[in-house]
Amino acid sequence: MKIEMDMYQQIRKRYLNGESQRSIAKSLGISRQSVKKYCDGSAHPEKRKEYNRSPVKVTKEVEDFIIGCLKSDEEDNIKKQKHTAKRIYERLVDEKEFTGGESTIRNAVKKLRAEQLVPPQSNVPLSYEPGEAIQIDWGEATAYLDDKKRKLYTFCARLCYSCDIFVQVFRAANEQAFLEAQQRMFDFFGGVPRRVIFDNAKVAVKEGFGTYAKPQDKYFSFSAHYAFELEFCNPGKGNEKGLVENLVGYSRRNFLVPLPRVSSIEELNQKLLEDCLKYREKHHIKGRSNAVNVMYQEEKQFLNPIPPYRFDTSKTKIVSVDDYSTACYERNYYSVPTKYLRKDVTVKGYGNDIQIFYQNEEIATHIRNYYSGKTEYKLEHYIDLIERKPRSVFNAKPVKQNVTEELLIWGKQLPGGNREMVKLLRLCLDYGEEYILSIKEAIPGHIVPTVDMIRAHLSKPVDTPVLNLNKEIAVEEVDLNKYDKKYGMVVQ
Q: Where is the Integrase catalytic domain (predicted)?
């Protein structure tokens, strides 16, 4: 009979208290053999005897048949139509007159399938020649831009020979950022590797995957210009570019912790470039004979030169400037100087910036907005118009979007009203708002500062340095007879 845990407890306690096995068995109504088995604690009711039945021996002929089924599945490569252990057993019975049990075949299939399978985590040690290849990838990070928490995308690259690194951040991981990042990467390394290894992301691949991937048209054009081969990884195979996969996490933990607090994405990218240079100078990868800097200097000599023509990585559109002096680009609006009203301009969208041209001349630049329905104004584009229409100054969107609340409050207190405010805005454009406000704060508190007072501080006379001279200057006497003798003069 099965001994339950409460009965086992009584057997152990009563035996330890000196009661005989016969008495315990009689009082509990169990056999003396059960009491003998459990009384001294050498066995436990929950322990089950291992099943040691020897299965039917699988012959070499049966093993070959199973391996043939598995290889047939691999060649056909149809995931939903593969041999199961049950199906292999049925075929063995029908085709080979197998007389053993199904469990025997199940165990044999499990064993042989494991022997045929290469573990997915296994990696082949790789070696690269100088300048042969570079691995690139995207990651994500968070930073404070102008005190606002932003999600950013990190572009990471690593040379396969020297393991030198390159990291930059972008507002989006789109095609323009992707191409611009690689262009900056070539500039940073001082040359172009012969192969670029990337995953199967849509930003680079139009269709297919791995060796069958077809690149996006613009990326193919970009690679043709910089003369590198495209190599795409298989989907979900991060181990195929393990060098840069490690860099994504390393850069986030070491370059972006604590969360950076910067005024602009350009400032953050400059910091990242400095971090990459420090890595190059100081890092030594375990298992390598030389430091990163030594190997990079060697690899640099084997990189292909950067072509003289700079590939245009932007997405370009020609649009007409509307009556509010803004140009629409991908559902957002960007201001231009009012003199280009109703003219056709060329808008170039890069990863982080917008550049606007008129007849090949750059007329405006903006931070690229990835929201929808937003308008970016620059005060300098509207100041001439506001000077002609001063009554609009306090309601003008370019003013509200670009100046601080402190400056607006001061402007409303000026005795000259709207016109004085316009003059104040002009000074802010010429000298910077922060500097103008610092002059205002320097004026005594009981005086209401005016624009004229500000101008007076801007035109302070330059202090002329004063030279302190002694009242008496010692002069040594000169014997002029020496000159008379030298030039043959008669000495009287």
A: 126-299
